[in-house]
Specification:
406 residues, mainly alpha, 75% helix
Length: 406
């Protein structure tokens, strides 16, 4: 019993420490994302993505890069862009970029995993897009694309009057929308982040290394090279592990760091991080939008691309001598609550949060703002909500025990 209580206290402390490490990065990322989403309109994006050529792909990638990292938001925006005339290739580029190339994800990865994984995330995100584009051009799914457009129907007519960027920035109403959008960003991810960081702490405190060595074959402290078949198994199991966590990439980064520390290959960890678009909820949403045939084709497209990307990244980094050392990624032994740059960054960005909340819900309380979201599963959302509440009870209890154990 004493051992359980000690592990409980340690896991809760670790979970809260992980979140404290990442808090300023979350605030910075979501603040930037909110600014960009309000001041760069969807209409501006849609007008430049009408063909499957290189220019549209680049623009789709860029607009995805400056968009929200929430997969449900990305799915809805991708659907809207495709429905309003963007090519299928450019829409897929936007979808992949908005979930893999976004600013906030790179910041979180740098905190937990280091620069090699940040480079891997951004280079790999570009490779995902290029491989997907190549597969689309080879397969040429014209009938699927035509049927998907029919399933979506005609886009609603909109008011195409558009302010200049300068006028948009000068508008107090738009700044109120920034504040509301910022709160919406947190509302979209609070369950994932809560559950993800709690699971990371529980795994660090309770799950033995042997479990990961069984799940990911040929892993361990003394293994510094992997055969092709081992890497292939890691890149296939990575998405399966991501699916079992029920959470998105932002909440999965501490878990990715733990996996790497347990000996999982660079390829396997990158596949794990890239996997937020190949899970069942996304498959179901795409089926609702485009039909099951197109949804399964998108699944094949993304799954094939992430496996190829993860393997190419691993061999590329190995060839250059830049494969990261698992021993350099030990986030469990850090002093999470020291008076250091993280402490002052968190204080500063908490003030930024206060300002944005004031702009959105005090000064701009009468301003209406809505962003389209993909249709979530009511059952899954209810499960995630209950799990998040259970996580809060677990963390509170663990910290209470921490006060007696430490």
């Amino acid at each position: 019993m004493d051992k359980f209580l000690e592990n409980w206290a340690q896991s809760a402390h670790t979970s809260l420490g992980f979140f404290w490490m990442a808090l300023w990065a979350f605030i910075l990322g979501y603040a930037l994302s909110s600014l960009i989403q309000i001041f760069v309109t969807e209409r501006r994006m849609q007008q430049t993505m009408g063909d499957s050529g290189g220019k549209s792909m680049v623009l789709g990638t860029f607009f995805g890069f400056i968009s929200s990292s929430c997969s449900f938001s990305a799915l809805a925006t991708t659907k809207s862009l495709f429905q309003k005339g963007a090519s299928f290739s450019a829409a897929i580029a936007f979808l992949l970029a908005s979930t893999n190339l976004v600013i906030e994800l790179g910041i979180i990865i740098s905190i937990f995993l280091g620069w090699q994984f940040v480079v891997g995330e951004y280079v790999g995100g570009a490779m995902l897009i290029l491989i997907s584009w190549f597969l689309i051009r080879i397969i040429k799914p014209k009938k699927l694309i035509e049927q998907a457009r029919k399933n979506l129907g005609k886009a609603k007519e909109e008011d195409h009057s558009d302010q200049s960027l300068k006028k948009r920035i000068q508008s107090s109403e738009n700044w109120a929308k920034v504040g509301k959008q910022y709160v919406m960003e947190w509302n979209m991810v609070w369950k994932d982040v809560t559950i993800g960081f709690t699971i990371a702490g529980i795994i660090s405190g309770f799950v033995p290394d042997s479990f990961f060595h069984s799940l990911f074959i040929n892993t361990g402290e003394n293994i510094d090279s992997f055969s092709f078949l081992t890497l292939l198994q890691h890149t296939v199991i990575g998405p399966v592990a991501a699916f079992l966590t029920f959470i998105g990439s932002m909440g999965n980064i501490p878990l990715a760091a733990l996996l790497f520390g347990k000996g999982v290959s660079f390829a396997g960890v990158m596949a794990f991080i890239f996997s937020d678009l190949v899970v069942f909820p996304v498959l179901r949403i795409n089926a609702t939008y485009y039909g099951w045939k197109m949804s399964l084709f998108i699944l094949f497209l993304l799954f094939s691309s992430l496996i190829g990307t993860a393997l190419l990244l691993h061999y590329g980094f190995d060839l250059l001598g830049y494969l990261p050392d698992p021993k350099s990624v030990d986030i469990t032994d850090r002093e999470h609550f020291a008076i250091d740059y993280t402490f002052f960054f968190n204080l500063f960005f908490l003030v930024i949060t206060g300002v944005l909340v004031y702009l959105g819900f005090v000064k701009g309380k009468d301003v209406m703002h809505h962003m389209e979201m993909a249709p979530k599963s009511a059952l899954l959302e209810k499960i995630l909500t209950y799990l998040a509440y259970i996580a809060y009870v677990w963390l509170a209890g663990g910290m209470l025990v921490w006060g007696f154990v430490v």
